[in-house]
Amino acid sequence: MVDFYRFEHLERFSGCMHAVTMKDTSAPFSLSLALHTGEEKEQIAVNRKMIAESFGVSREWCFVVADQTHSDNIHIVTKKETRGWESQESAVADCDALITDQKGVVLCVLTADCVPVLLYDPEEEVAAAVHAGWKGTKSKIVAKTVRKMQEVFGCSAENIVAGIAPAIGKCCYEVGEEVAQHFFDLREAFTTRGDKYMLDLSFVNKQQLLDSGLQKENIKMSGICTACEVERYFSYRKEQGCSGRFMSMIALL
Description:
By secondary structure, this protein is α+β, with helices and mostly antiparallel strands. It has helices spanning 8-11, 41-55, 134-138, 141-153, 177-180, 201-211; strands spanning 4-5, 16-21, 62-65, 74-77, 97-100, 105-111, 115-121, 126-132, 161-164, 174-175, 190-193, 196-199, 219-221, 246-252. Helices cover 21% and strands 26% of the residues. The two termini are 21 Å apart.
C-alpha cells in the first residue's frame, strides 16, 4: 500500500476523499506520476494504477488531470469521464484548476515545488484542485477558483474548506526581484537575502483565500517544504530540474 499525506480537517468530512502522494523508492521513478516529463509511460501507468488502488476507488471512478501551463485557466468537470490519466493527449488543455460537483471524479494536480491547493464545499458538495506556481499565484488563480465555485455552483466562501499541500517554502525558494515584485504588497510573504528574495508562495495563497472570504479555521497548511523534505517529495529546485512529480487529489463521494 502507498503512503499518503492527508489533512485532518478534510478527513472529518464523509462527503469527500483526498490524498497527496509521496515518493516511494521501491516504485518506478520513485513513484513519479507525470506523463509529460519523459519517463517510460508504461512505468508511470503502473504507478498511477498503484495510486488508484491505494486511494480506494472503484473501477467506475474517473480521474481528471490537466495539461498545466502556469495559467489562471479554470475548467469545470461536468461529467464522469477520465481525462489525462491514461495519456497526456487526453488531458484538459491549458488549465491549472479543476472544479466539479460530480461524484466519483478524482481531480488531480501534479507538482514538484509549486503550491497545490485542495478545496471542498460540504454544503453545495463541490470540490476543486488548484496548481499555483508563482505565475498562477501572481494571477490569483486560487481566488479565481473560489469565485468560480461561487458563480457556477452557488458556494459560500465561508463554507469552503482548504488544504494547502506540500510546496517549496520560504526557507528554500530564492527568487529575483523580477518575481518578488509581484508580491511586494504582502510584506510578510518574503524576506530579503542580499539582492535576492525568499518567497513564501503558500502564505500568499493562504492570504488570497482569506481575502476571498474563507474562514481562517477552514484553511490548513501542511507546513512541509518540498526542498527540505526531498526524500519524501519531488522538488524541482532542490533536485536541479528533476522530472518527478507528486500528485494532490480530491473527489466527492
